[in-house]
Design brief:
This protein is mainly beta and 259 residues long. It is 5% helix and 50% strand. It has helices at 2-11, 127-130; strands at residues 30-31, 35-42, 47-53, 61-63, 67-72, 75-77, 84-85, 88-90, 96-102, 112-117, 134-142, 145-155, 161-170, 175-178, 188-192, 197-199, 203-208, 212-218, 225-230, 235-244, 247-257. The strands form 4 sheets. The chain has an 8-stranded antiparallel β-barrel. It starts with a helix and ends with a strand.
Amino acid sequence: MAIAMTALFTACDQDNEAAIYNNTQGQGLAFINTDLGNVEVPAADPNYTITLARANASAAFSGKIDKITAIVDDETVDYNTVCTISDYAFEMGSYTADIKINLEKLAMGKVLNLTLECTDSLNLAPTSDIGTNAVKLAISKAYNWVDLGTGHYYSPEWWEEDFDVAIQKAEGFNQYKIKSLFQEGYDIQFEITDANVVIVPKQASWVHSSYGTVSLEGYADAGFVAGTYDPSTKTATMTLRHTVSAGSFGAYTDTLVLP
């Protein structure tokens, strides 16, 4: 058994290494990692796999994680509302099994702090050998941005000029990004819905020399609706409001022609 377990952990990369354990009861379950840190998964495929190990591989064995704690925005929530976590199933002779986490339910921009814990004393590996029977991670979804090309931006009322802009699109989503629209390093993200409505959520857009950070938001209707998109001309018409902590500079209508 010691030889088998040594081979198991030697085969893993350094990030997955853990202390070798023996003298187990039952299955001898243990997580290979104790803290996975910050993890991002692509929004187009929001899945992540955690490895569960065991010392006794003489027979097939399956089950559920005994205790799952989920925290979002510093509040404990029912994990079923923000993710889906699979059961585990060891095949006979196998020392590892996968636990799959799916984040389709988790809102973009949110970080899910998860702790998975095995609490069944009959099947735990001795804590003196491996240190812990729980794993924790902070997991979130991220868009995969793909370059679309060069668009053209018209701002006749506010900036009184027009200029070329680099455009990106989130793979698998109707989310777009204008790179460094008004100031270098300040990208503007917006959505074009299936109904060709343009939504621009409130976000930092540039820095005023006197008033500091200027926020930009869609201001044509409630819900940060900025305007509409004409697919025949690839033109988005957007009413945008510029605000600072001291107040608003007003709302102005700009247009963007996509590549």
